[in-house]
Amino acid sequence: MNDPYKNYKDNSINTMTRGEQLILLLDKAVQRLTIVSLMMEDGNFTEAIINLNKTRDIFNYLMACLDKKFEFATDLLQLYSFINAEIVKAAGKKDKTAIDNLIPIVIELRDTWKEAEKLARINK
User: Fold this and answer.
1) What is the pTM of this model?
2) Which of 68, 73, 108, 115 is the most buried (most CB within 10 A)?
3) If we measure between CA atoms, which residue out of 53, 51, 32, 37 comes closest to residue 110?
4) How many whole angstroms separate alpha carbon 65 and alpha carbon 62?
5) Are 37 and 103 in contact (CB under 8 A)?
6) What is d(CA 122, CA 107) in angstroms, rounded to the nearest whole number?
7) For the segment 66-117, what is each residue's pLDDT rounded down to a tens digit?
8) Residue 24's closest CA among 16, 35, 36, 33?
């Protein structure tokens, strides 16, 4: 079937810049980590782990897409790896505090990319 919502969503994503797509992924990571924190608080660890794995998928994808020709790619790879390692530890220990500590890091990362995207648009 032809799903108009899916078509709209696909077109929206396909017309975004790479920076906008990156910001969208980081927004999703923040959203998932926030939900995980609430789930852990409620003792819903099964769903929390599912969402943590989806968040790890985001950072695995970002690591795979890094353009190594840029100097800062190594730093980003280390940051994404750190975030994934913390997610794994938090999942294993069912540690809400570790998730709560990650959220501001991912928010700051997203906000940095938002600013970079704005500057890129201005300098075009």
Assistant:
1) 0.85
2) 73
3) 32
4) 5
5) yes
6) 23
7) 988 988 899 999 999 999 999 999 999 999 999 999 999 999 999 999 999 9
8) 16
